[in-house]
Amino acid sequence: MEVGMIGLGRMGMNMARRLLRGGHRVVAYNRSPEKTQEILSDGALGAYSLSELVEKLSLPRAVWLMLPAGNVVDQYIQELSGLLRPGDILVEGGNTHYKDDLRRAQVLEEKSIGFLDVGVSGGIWGLEKGYCLMIGGKKEAYERLVPVFESLAPKDGYLYCGPTGAGHFVKMIHNGIEYGMMQAYAEGFALMEASSYREYFDYSRVAHLWNQGSVVRSWLLELLESAFSSDPRLSQIRGYVEDSGEGRWTVQEALESSVATPVTAVSLFQRFLSRQEDAFSDRILAALRREFGGHPVLKAQAAHDSHGEGKP
User: How confident is the model at residue 152 (pLDDT cuts 50, 70, 90)?
Assistant: First the structure.
């Protein structure tokens, strides 16, 4: 198939590469032309404006957005809605709030342009391992793009979740769960770091051990093993943990639905606290975000004491 890929950041670039490996024709655009130039060496066609990208795609077109959530998505959709034609499909693959999907789909439906919301998980490792795709929108639009989903995802790695908004809703819950899992690992290793046995613990080996048949084994532990291997006490980074929105949205949804989600809420609030102090548990959270998503971390600014704590 042909796919127009807009946004060549940490996720979009590697998704375009995976599509090319799957035999698809990719027309790529990025606001900074250097990224567009970079993907040309992988076999993509470059476009240096949205109108050029649309012109290089055959009807009916499929255009995939991989942009930061927020107003920038609205701006691109507004411009694309004047360039695309009835029967084309626009895919929104960023970490968007599902309620925004409902509004955007309605705008595009008035012009008979299809819309799919796709929650994407896989981080910077997706190029090799594949991306987990959670898909919402009209079933006929989904069915047209199944070959694209098959190339991006590993076996059994994509799912039609329901009508518009369902894909990003499931991704929102996925990320809320992720917050809680990360927080549990962070607190467990922090307890070990505070114990009288800490000098005996090699945390990389502990993480590796727990992935050998333990009930708490996971890919996150594999990433934590990697982080500890290169920095045994995570002394090179500060425990300053950002949040990209999905945890907040999950807690807001819980409030609106009157569903108790104390683990998700506490893990979100802990991220707020991390911006005021530099605890060992927060350095673990920051390291995990760097490992799976390539998110930036703050470098440590002060030496840590014998318990792994540091000054803000």
Answer: very high
DSSP letter (8 states) at residue 125: G
Whether residue 29 contacts residue 48, with contact meaning beta carbons closer than 8 Å, is answered with: yes
Span 69-88, pLDDT tens digits: 999 999 999 999 999 999 99
Cα–Cα distance, 312 to 301 (Å, whole number): 8
Instruction: Enter the pTM of the model.
Output: 0.89
Instruction: Specify whether the CB–CB gap between 234 and 287 falls below 8 A.
Output: yes
Span 273-289, pLDDT tens digits: 898 888 899 999 999 99
Using a 10 angstrom Cβ sphere, with 0-12 exposed, 13-18 middle and 19 or more buried, the burial of residue 178 is: buried
pLDDT tens digits, residue range 117-139?
999 999 889 999 999 999 999 99
For residue 54, give the 3-state DSSP assignment: helix
**Around Cβ 190, how many Cβ atoms within 10 Å?**
20
Active site positions, annotated: 171, 178
Q: How far is CA 148 from CA 4, 26, 123, 197, in A?
A: 11, 11, 18, 51
With residue 42 as reference, give the H or E element that holds it.
none
- CA 209 from centre of chain: 27
State the CB neighbour count (10 A cutoff) for residue 237: 20
Residues 6+ apart with CB under 8 A from 255: none
Judged on CB neighbours under 10 Å (0-12, 13-18, 19+), 256 is: exposed
Q: Residues 88, 62: contact at Cβ < 8 Å?
A: yes
Here the tokens at position 211 are: 């992935």
Q: Which residue has the tokens 């590469």?
A: 17
